[in-house]
Amino acid sequence: MAPQRRRPRYRLTLIAAGITVAAILAAGPVPGPLTSTPAPPAPTASPSAASAPAATAPATPPGSASLEATKAAAGIAPFGAFLGSGPLGVTRMSELRRWLGGTEPKVAHTYLPGGRWIDIEGPPGFLDAWARWRRAQADRTLVLNVPMQERNEENVSDDQVRELLRQGAAGEFDQHFRTLAERLVESKVPDTVLVLGWEMNGVTYTHRCGPDPAAWKTYWKRIVTTMRSVPGQRFRFDFTPSRGRDAVPWTECYPGDDTVDIIGMDAYDQPAGLTFGEQVKEPYGLRQHVDFAEAHHKPISYPEWGLFRNGDNTDYMRGMLAWIEEHKPLYNTLTDYCPHGVWQCAQNPRSSQVYRSFLYGRGAQPAAPAPTVSTSAPGPTKSTAPTPEPAGDCPAPDPADWVKYWLGRKFCLDW
Fold first, then answer.
1. In the chain, N or C terminus with fewer CB closer than 10 Å?
2. Bridge partner residues of 267 (DSSP)
3. What is the dihedral of CA 319, 324, 327, 330, to 10 degrees?
């Protein structure tokens, strides 16, 4: 299959003109991503075409009878959604719970931006709202995507990526990850799930694996070993490729059982025309992911999943929900902005109804169990991979969340 492309979470670059952001704000509230995709509205009591219920909403909304039949009587596996990268994402968690008839998302998911190393270190105050949310209840889980390189969405060439990976493998960037680990421990979220170097088998990110898989694996091991050396940490490291072969088989990037706690997969509904059944059976697809994790005695996760190339696709939504129900991942988090989402995105009303009906009124969830965390890191394993193509997508920034922090930096505009 050709390399899969989707919008990265955001691309932020150093510039001298913070006037861009200031001018937008002066004109009024920013409605959403500065792309051709319709902007997700800020959630209120009814954030999408499938209107949200008030506190007195009916116990069961209309929905799919087949999905209703698969509901477990004793609760569901831990779930959540990506609802925004900053404090607004935390606020939206309670709104999503109300929309789901009281079914509470126990998993919060956010991202460290990869513009500069100071961003990847988790600057003071950056994650405070997320840490407070996590500490409020013992059975909650915080999932944090961590870039492995700065300039992570700046179309860096394969030659540059190869050199950066080798520098990382030699330890040149260790201090940045030690600082992040220390800040997470100081924030009293030492058990955070870290999705390190996600979608490494693709072409979008500077932290991609393809230009030098052996160096990538050694670099991963250095990062994990460095972060585990910080007193008080209980981090869980999630190895998460994108579904399918993409630019390089993700199995060639697997760094080893001793530095991986969870084997995840980002599984969007793409490419166009591919059925859910084909997404299960394709090489490096959903079935191979589950089998690979079982062979390595690791739990699975789905940090990112959602609609994409096939529009408002209820077959995909039903299929993915049933797959999650059957295989019981440690956690799953839906990407909830257009075109992927079902709550903040009004362009997927039928899939929104399926998702909401499946989760509505499901009650309490069990806490995500803590998988065994190993501590040693072996040397690199040689591997080869084809050279990926350059990426060309533009991200969907969330300016309402971090505008004060990012003032003086420019969002990528896809002309």
1. C
2. 305
3. 160
